[in-house]
Amino acid sequence: MRFTKMHGAGNDYVYVNCFEESVPDDPAQTARLIADRHFGVGGDGLVLICPSDKADARMRMFNADGSEAEMCGNAIRCVGKYLFDHGLTDKQHIQIETGRGVLALDLEVVDGLVERARVDMGVPILNSSDIPTTLAGHPPVNATLDLGDRQLTVTCVSMGNPHCITYVDQLNDEWVYQVGPRVEHAPQFPRRVNAEFIQIISPDEVRMRVWERGSGETLACGTGAAAVCVAGVLAGKTNRKITVHLLGGDLELEWAADNHVYKTGPATEVFSGEWAPAAERALR
Questions:
Q1: Quick one: DSSP state of residue 82?
Q2: Percentage of residues of the chain with pLDDT beyond 70
Q3: Per-residue confidence at 279, pLDDT binned at 50, 70, 90?
Q4: Nearest-CA neighbor of 223 among 158, 165, 141, 177?
Q5: How much is the pLDDT for 276?
Q6: Strands 205-212 and 249-255
Q7: Is residue 224 within 8 Å of residue 163, measured between CB atoms?
């Protein structure tokens, strides 16, 4: 199986062109094996670029633990880059089918290759039962999340997948590695949740670290950054247009007047290779 390693602001996945390659028989298991950073290719998960009857392509995204996610804001930029750079489309405005629905991308092309993409992330999902969370509010804004021995003040938003945002005075490993997994698996989130920890620099600028559902800490999370943009407005902490600084780079976000969230960021191809069936059998 041919694959291409790509990343968006350090959020790295293994991509398979299913226009030419067969979809793995068990994509969840393939994701767990191929994403392993010691015995596999290494990455935050597996992305399948598939034909679609309603868009230029369909994106299926699997986390490193094999769970299938609805959407990934960094991966979709890389899918757009792959389609253009590898000749599957010659359009600079394209549409990608995801678990979140069909999303539109505007590709920024330099010397024949895509460097960045602007993604219409759609309208934020604010009804608590649709996020989903049992916390009160539509959405929960500055709500109390009880973890037993500690309580967090959180704001929850879905951008097709669920996010729980906590504002902190100083970002550190304890928030990410100690608190993050507990937030992900808190019973108030029946489908688990992505946990974002945010340090405010100004109303136009924040720093973010994220513990992603099914993958652990990643260097960037596009849907998470979009959720942070919305949460900042709802909680009265930031403006509708912000720059989010992540460990892997910067993303530009805007919750526009049309109620859609727009995200702009880089997409980078790293290398291509072949995942041998024998290697997968040896790791099972």
A1: H
A2: 97
A3: low
A4: 158
A5: 86
A6: unpaired
A7: yes
Domain with CATH 3.10.310.10 in the chain: 2-122+267-283, 128-259
Short-list 198, 230, 212, CA closest to 124: 230
Q: Which of 74, 75, 113, 120 is nearest to 95 (CA)?
A: 120
Residues 68, 30 contacting (CB under 8 angstroms): no
Q: Which residues are catalytic?
A: 72, 221
What does the block give as tokens for 131? 């996020």
Q: What topology does CATH give the domain 2-122+267-283?
A: Diaminopimelate Epimerase; Chain A, domain 1 (3.10.310)
CA distance 180 to 193: 10
pLDDT digits (tens, 9 = 90+) for 123-161: 999 999 999 999 999 999 999 999 999 999 999 999 999
Residue partners of 197: CB distance under 8 A and separation at least 6: 166, 168, 171, 175, 176, 179, 180, 208, 209, 210, 211
Q: Structure pTM?
A: 0.93
* Domain boundaries 128-259, CATH class: alpha beta
Reported as a single tens digit per residue, the pLDDT across 14-72 is 999 999 999 999 999 999 999 999 999 999 999 999 999 999 999 999 999 999 999 99
Burial 199-218 (b: 16+ CB within 10 A, else e): bbeeeeebbbbbbbbbbbbb
